[in-house]
Write a structure and sequence with these properties.
five-stranded mixed barrel, 38% helix
Length: 178
């Protein structure tokens, strides 16, 4: 009986070590993530939602109030994805406008309707439960600007709701334009 238990233990230990080695080899061979282009991301966003993405695009706008947001545009298109400064990114420098960036972050999606916007506006103006939360003047202006942009998009969509897509950017690098 002891020999059987010992044999089972040895087999289980060997199998566990072998699987760990396989996983480590997969990680090493994967290398750095290849960036996808903004238009590819926006064409088929479903598989990327709530996942870490590496996206490449042209910076067309950096929020002048706080530097906490930028627009990353698809080449040859008017479509863009908003990137929020999170993680190691304190804020985006306005000088990034016109640069090609590779952004690493979490891709997010939110369905927005008029009720959602009303609750958000109440929170931003201090009428919500977050009255004790302190906002800097520039952050509040930036948030109100974003709210206004999304309201405008909803009103002009002709729909009852829209889906907002953005990236919570954790890091980025400037990629030379060829």
């Amino acid at each position: 009986m002891k020999q059987t238990r010992s044999l089972i233990f040895i087999i289980l230990a060997f199998t566990a070590c072998h699987k760990t080695a396989d996983r480590n080899a997969e990680k090493e061979s994967a290398g750095p993530a290849t960036p996808i282009l903004v238009d590819e991301l926006l064409k088929n966003p479903g598989p990327y939602v709530e996942r870490t993405v590496t996206v490449e695009g042209l910076v067309t706008h950096v929020c002048m109030h706080s530097g906490k947001r930028l627009h990353l545009k698809a080449s040859g298109s008017n479509e863009f994805v908003r990137v929020e400064a999170k993680g190691d990114i304190g804020q985006f420098d306005r000088e990034l406008e016109g640069d090609n960036l590779v952004i690493n972050g979490i891709f997010r999606s939110q369905v927005i309707d008029k009720d959602y916007l009303a609750r958000w506006e109440t929170e931003l103006t201090g009428g919500g439960q977050n009255k004790n939360e302190s906002h800097t003047h520039s952050a509040s202006e930036s948030d109100m600007e974003l709210l206004s942009e999304i309201k405008y998009a909803l009103e002009n969509s002709g729909k009852d709701q829209i889906t907002q897509l953005w990236i919570d950017g954790e890091s980025f690098s400037v990629k030379p334009i060829n």
